[in-house]
Amino acid sequence: MHSYIDTAKSLPETLKFYRRDVITMANRINLNGTSFHGAGAITEIVNEAQAHGFQKAFVCSDPDLVKFNVTSKVTDLLEKAGLAYQLYSDIKPNPTIDNVKHGVQAFKDSKADYIIAIGGGSSMDTAKSNRYHHCQSGI
User: Fold this and answer.
1) Nearest to 87 by CA among 46, 59, 113, 107
2) For residue 30, with 0-12 CB atoms within 10 Å meaning exposed, 13-18 middle and 19 or more buried, which class applies?
3) Measured between alpha carbons, how far is 118 from 125 in angstroms, rounded to an integer?
4) How far apart are CA 72 and CA 76, in angstroms?
5) What's the pLDDT tens digit per position in 9-44?
6) Closest to 113 (Cα-Cα) out of 81, 89, 85, 75
7) Where would I find the H helices in 1-139?
8) CA–CA dist 55, 87 (Å, integer)
9) Spatial distance between the Cα atoms of 107 and 87, rounded to a whole number of angstroms
10) What are the phi and psi torsion angles at 95 (to 5°)?
């Protein structure tokens, strides 16, 4: 017969797990779409785009990554595979509402059907906000 371990008795009902010896807590991360991280991740971009039949990428990358040729590692792969893209690098740290609006308009104007975000938080925030507004507007 299973029972709650003693330390679980004081926990809220939603945190109690029916196990003999441990309290198990799971972390769930729900990503919309596909996210690749780590060594060799960029090599999967072309396969992913082709598998979904995507035609044109909206590549979000901060200006420094463009300047230091980090972004070109991805765009070179897209070019080699014959995949169209538009680069958007007017990304600011901690994007403001105006930055987001500008990015959303650039995404709409590009007529891209998928987004690639290259870099850290601001690039990811820009890409996510573009996707969110794209979905909300029904475009």
Assistant:
1) 59
2) exposed
3) 11
4) 5
5) 454 555 444 444 445 444 434 455 667 777 777 888
6) 85
7) 43-52, 63-67, 71-80, 97-110, 121-137
8) 14
9) 10
10) -55, 135
Contact 59, 71 (CB under 8 A): yes
Question: How far apart, in whole angstroms, are the C-alpha atoms of residue 22 and residue 3?
Answer: 11
Report pTM: 0.69
Buried b (16+ CB within 10 A) or exposed e, 38-58: eeeeeeebbeebeeeebebbb
pLDDT digits 0-9 by tens, 14-23? 544 444 444 5
Helix axes 43-52, 71-80, angle to 10 degrees: 50
**Please, where are the H alpha helices in 26-120?**
43-52, 63-67, 71-80, 97-110
CB-CB neighbours of 74 under 10 Å: 21
Express each pLDDT in 83-126 by its tens digit. Answer: 999 999 988 888 788 888 888 889 889 999 888 888 777 676 66
